[in-house]
Known about the structure:
Radius of gyration: 24 Å
Helix content: 25-40%
Shape: elongated
Largest sheet: 6 strands, parallel
Number of strands: 11
Amino acid sequence: MNERSGPLTGVKVLEFAGLGPGPFAGTFFADLGAQVLRIERPGAPDAAATRSDARGRRAIELDLKDPADVATALALSEKADLLFEGNRPGVMERLGLGPETVLAHNSALVYGRMTGWGQSGPYAHTAGHDINYLALTGALHAIGPEERPIPPLNLAADYGGGAMFLVAGLLAALVHARTTGQGQVVDVGMTDCASYLMSLFYGMRAAGDWADARSANLLDGGAPFYDTYRCADGRFVAIGSIEPQFYALLLKATGTEDQLAGVQMDKTRWPERKEILRAAFARKTRDEWCAIMEGTDICFAPVLSLDEAPKHPHNVARGTFVDVGGVTLPAPAPRFSATPSTAPAAPRPIERDRGDALAAWGV
């Protein structure tokens, strides 16, 4: 992979290796052309081809309990535009690599700190995972059937609230640093950022348009026209016919016009109307519904498995998935017309002899 191809060509990123959202942020920077160097702990295993979150960048080992290696990390930070880490608050300070020290060596550096709970607050020093961070935001309470909340994979806090807010925050601060010469610290707390993602729903709640309950609202599966339905073959389709004209097409395609005539937004009628649509969708297979509904404005899509999604004609036409070392993985996104990302390559082994990697950074 050409590490210098993409809109972030020329940006140098120093990544202190972590888990989950940190590596994904590193991958995103690398896919968009940044020169990323990942710092691993001594003895860290090489990433397998399936570790798509380790692709596109070099990696070296540094023992951050060794003063010589700490000095090397500081030297690397002097050459970096961006630096990010995902340790608990205080860890980098104890290693001699906290923001105050590093910014003294490179005043224009943007220093990203990504944690679940943020750098301050009663929970700041405690362990947690996506499900815990999401629980504190109100989002987990709102997702799932009436009986209980359902974890939405680790997309909402770790990757949406963590990695992507880290990327956005670092790039925003980079614009400021390049304008003023002043670096800064970016505190990415997943609870803060996942809460921010919930802005629409908090606004709807304040306006009286959102019940503080699951499966009772327009966008949480409460509405019969915004939900998934099981088909005759046990597979599912997704329906999002919110607008009246799209809803009318849904009723016509399912043959439920006579049964579901009336005010679409009457929430008191939603449960019975949902049962009517359940019965209708159960009469045909998913592929039969695709033949009827694909290409229309019903707001329809088949619910695809991980094995099916890469083979769908739309994803194939878009090149949404690519082969990386014999493994099918999502392609870099978004798309750029003038500075496209190159196809990702399999992860590189850690450079145990780090001389070449250091030389590439001018250290």
